[in-house]
Write a sequence for this structure.
């Protein structure tokens, strides 16, 4: 049964999430140049996905293996059979969307063949590893 109060709460939550996303999109969408340089120095073309994941983890990123569409540094949609999508872990418990650095490592034969560093909204909740970064 759909009670009017339940509908009102759901509508309020949806409006809140949309306003947080809108606020994120108004903030800087460009990673700090020094951060981008540090990432590119740490992750070399030809590294295995395991080694690249480990190096980015050391810089505060959490990675997952994906396939399909991703955004390049200019914001253009691209496609790859395999890539690592890595998002900067928040330093504190976070339940809101916020802009974070994001790295996409395009893989060919399980080795890094492309590196894209962006900044954009992320709504992923913090993981237990993020609680250790204070």
């Amino acid at each position: 049964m759909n009670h009017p109060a339940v509908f009102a709460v759901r509508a309020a939550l949806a409006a809140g999430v949309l306003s947080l996303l809108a606020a994120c999109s108004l903030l800087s969408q460009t990673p700090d140049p020094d951060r981008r340089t540090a990432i590119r120095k740490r992750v070399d073309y030809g590294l295995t996905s395991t080694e690249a994941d480990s190096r980015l983890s050391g810089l505060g990123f959490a990675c997952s293996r994906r396939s399909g569409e991703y955004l390049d540094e200019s914001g253009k949609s691209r496609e790859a059979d395999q890539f690592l999508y890595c998002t900067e872990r928040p330093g504190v418990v976070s339940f809101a969307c916020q802009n974070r650095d994001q790295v996409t490592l395009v893989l060919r034969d399980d080795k890094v063949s492309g590196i894209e560093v962006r900044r954009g909204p992320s709504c992923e909740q913090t993981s237990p590893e993020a609680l250790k970064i204070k």
